[in-house]
Automatic annotation (TrEMBL):
Keywords: Oxidoreductase, Thiamine pyrophosphate. Its cofactor is thiamine diphosphate. Pfam families: E1_dh. CDD domains: TPP_E1_PDC_ADC_BCADC. The branched-chain alpha-keto dehydrogenase complex catalyzes the overall conversion of alpha-keto acids to acyl-CoA and CO(2). It contains multiple copies of three enzymatic components: branched-chain alpha-keto acid decarboxylase (E1), lipoamide acyltransferase (E2) and lipoamide dehydrogenase (E3). This is 2-oxoisovalerate dehydrogenase subunit alpha. Its EC number is 1.2.4.4. Belongs to the BCKDHA family. It comes from Rubrobacter taiwanensis. It catalyses: N(6)-[(R)-lipoyl]-L-lysyl-[protein] + 3-methyl-2-oxobutanoate + H(+) = N(6)-[(R)-S(8)-2-methylpropanoyldihydrolipoyl]-L-lysyl-[protein] + CO2. The lineage of its organism: Bacteria, Bacillati, Actinomycetota, Rubrobacteria, Rubrobacterales. It comes from the Bacteria.
């Protein structure tokens, strides 16, 4: 009886067992690549790490609705789960981390976490918080003007909603009924600033002020995020306009490898959230639904470990960009 109950949850969403295992692999790959990045940082091989850990369900659940190479994505620096769902690999991430020439994001020029792929319509981000939003609504406007049913997914943390750029983009999206989804991953902190010093009231409620729906979701439950995102994507494709999704989640690591979070948050709080780890929760669901057993779980872990090992070795041995090429894409080159 219990098994039938849980099975119905994904079936009601139109997801089959292959979908579930694919989502699980994306989440686990994002996590294992991230963990490897911290090791490389501590070994002195990687200058800087910024993590997705804790946010994989929010990212994969939303991104599973995207049509790669057709819809547009404006990710933020934690969105490894989104770009992996779209088709980027462990190798891509590690080439970027180690700033190698072959890094598909920027040829080793940008900080890690500045995702970019022309084929996958992942638009490169600038480092200032919130600047992606006005660009995202511009792309949504282009879809609308062309009469295409593409959707734009624009992401950020809860603190990005304090920026003027976010409000301007929300306003523009509401006025023009644009096919854009604002996915706010509320992970409780902006570096050391807690949510209660960042936002008064609820983020989702702000959507009403701009004339479109806002929905809050448990961001550590991948199927719950998939469900609300699916509805938002369908609305956008029907030409009914934008949706704001606030995924309630938690940043499981320090802000970055340059931050010491022991200075501003209690260990007990982190430990409480670790019990709600989105990967742990999805794993329990998959076991309950009979999609995963211990042997299959081990098999997937081993496959992913091999992929991350291979990617690490490849990236460590890959050449750096040629110094002569530093100005390429910055200034026009003579023919
Ligand atoms: C305009 C601007 N101000 C400050 C910073 C420095 N900064 C980088 S990340 C960050 C925190 C953002 O918090 P949030 O939006 O909640 O995302 P999170 O890192 O928690 O995922 C800040 C203040 C910046 N990059 N840009
Ligand atoms: Mg935050």
């Amino acid at each position: 009886m219990a098994i039938r109950e849980t099975q119905r949850r994904h079936e009601a969403l139109g997801l089959d067992e292959d979908d579930l295992l694919r989502m699980y692999r994306h989440m686990l790959l994002a996590r294992r690549v991230d963990e490897r990045m911290w090791i490389l940082n501590r070994q002195g091989k990687a200058a800087f790490v910024i993590s997705c850990q804790g946010q994989e369900a929010a990212q994969v659940g939303a991104a599973y609705n995207l049509r790669p190479g057709y819809d547009y994505v404006y990710p933020y620096y934690r969105d490894a789960g989104i770009v992996i769902t779209l088709g980027m690999t462990a190798r891509d991430q590690l080439l970027s981390l180690l700033a190698r020439a072959e890094d598909p994001n920027s040829g080793g020029r940008q900080m890690p976490g500045h995702f970019s792929s022309r084929e996958l319509n992942i638009v490169t981000a600038s480092a200032p918080i919130g600047v992606q939003y006005p660009q995202a609504v511009g792309s949504a406007m282009a879809f609308k003007m062309r009469g295409e049913d593409g959707v734009v997914l624009a992401c950020g943390g809860e603190a990005s909603t304090s920026e003027g750029d976010w409000h301007e983009a929300m306003n523009f999206a509401g006025i023009h009924d644009l096919p854009v989804i604002f996915l706010i991953q509320n992970n409780v902190y902006a570096i050391s600033v807690p949510e209660n010093l960042q936002v008064a009231g609820r983020i989702v409620d702000r959507a009403a002020g701009y004339g479109f729906p806002g929905v809050e979701v448990d961001g550590n439950d991948v199927l719950a995020v998939y469900k609300v995102a699916k509805e938002a994507f369908e609305r956008a494709r029907r030409g009914e306009g934008p949706t704001l999704i606030e995924a309630k989640t938690y940043r499981m690591t320090a802000h970055s490898s340059d931050d010491d979070d022991r200075r501003y948050r209690e260990r007990e709080e982190v430990e409480e959230w670790r019990k709600k780890d989105p990967i742990l929760r999805f794993k329990q669901y998959l076991h309950g639904a009979g999609v995963l057993d211990d042997a299959k779980e081990r098999e997937i872990e081993e496959e992913i470990r091999a992929e991350v090992d291979e990617a690490t070795e490849y990236a460590e041995n890959a050449p750096y960009a040629d110094p002569e090429s530093a100005m390429r894409y910055v200034y026009a080159e003579e023919e």
